[in-house]
Amino acid sequence: MFEKTLLAGKRILVTGGGSGLGAAMSRRFAELGGELVICGRRSAVLDEAAAQLRTECGAKVDIFTCDIRNADAVADMMTAIWQDGPLDILVNNAAATFIAQSEHLSARAADAILAPTLHGAMYCTLEAGRRWIVSHHRGVVLSILSTSTITGRAFTMPSAMAKSGLLAMTKSLAVEWGPKDVRLVAIAPGPFPTPGAIGQLQPEGRNSGPAARNPLGRVGEHSELANLASFLISDQAGYINGEMVVQDGGAHLRSSGAEDLLHWTDAQWAAQRAARMKN
């Protein structure tokens, strides 16, 4: 399946493609012949990631510094991208989250999660979709979700809401846009540790790591997620539409993964809030 030409001729935008899982997927797409466009808010991160992809994979990579929370900025980015030719694939990867007691969430804190995770992905999807439909160009949208879409997730409620909203978007547009040759799919990853996620979701004081709670006794490898993503956006998966594939080692079958936090003391939560305020 993973021939070097699997994604040849495909122009792929990965939001948040400069770091973490976005960077891992971008690298694999490049290895399989894809032409990359990566966007994010930090230009230095994007520059470094693009340089590595060009040097190590020989890939064509364009970068755009864009805050996807801003609908006008997303529209401007898409217009600039299309000047060099249409996208074929959009990967909604950029997101934000942190653990918090929901009753202590301010509107600003909740919006800091909802804005990039839900609104930003929707803005990108609509801007790409309307261009594909007008020009009769085949397109694919892959959204990186979470098993919280199945179980809910205590202490990351805004993230669970946002990811569930994107699952609804995936299913809704799969029907609406399928006849227009635009396909939507999603992945619900379990624990695939990245520096950002570890800092926000696995602070000092949690009882056990995700590997200890996983039926397979380990966390996921970035290459495993990147391979699944590569398959789902490829023509090989052309008859998969509106579906979310769970890739978590069976962890969601045991719990939502947040039950240990029910036993945290007020002092532990206070320390967590203080640490978050410093970042």
List how many beta strands DSSP finds.
7
What structural class do you assign from the helix and strand content? alpha/beta
- Poorly predicted runs: none
State the assembly state of the protein chains. Answer: single chain
CATH architecture name = 3-Layer(aba) Sandwich
Order of helices and strands: EHEHEHEHEHHEHHEH
The CATH topology annotation reads as Rossmann fold
Largest sheet: 7 strands, parallel
Q: For the CA atoms, what is the radius of gyration?
A: 18 Å
Individual helix count: 9
Which helices and strands, and how do they pair?
Layout: E1 11-15, H1 20-31, E2 35-40, H2 43-57, E3 61-65, H3 71-82, E4 89-92, H4 107-135, E5 139-144, H5 148-151, H6 157-177, E6 182-189, H7 195-201, H8 222-233, E7 244-247, H9 266-278
Parallel strand pairs: 1-2, 1-4, 2-3, 4-5, 5-6, 6-7
Helix pairs in contact: 1-8, 3-4, 4-6
3D structure, described in words:
43% of the residues are buried. The longest helix has 29 residues, at 107-135. This protein has a single domain, classed as NAD(P)-binding Rossmann-like Domain (Rossmann fold, 3-Layer(aba) Sandwich). It starts with 10 loop residues before the first strand and ends with a helix. A seven-stranded parallel β-sheet has the order 3-2-1-4-5-6-7, sandwiched between helices. The protein is globular, with a radius of gyration of 18 Å. α3 (71-82) packs parallel to α4 (107-135) and α4 (107-135) packs parallel to α6 (157-177). It is an alpha/beta fold. The chain has nine helices and seven strands, in the order βαβαβαβαβααβααβα. β4, α4 and β5 form a beta-alpha-beta unit.
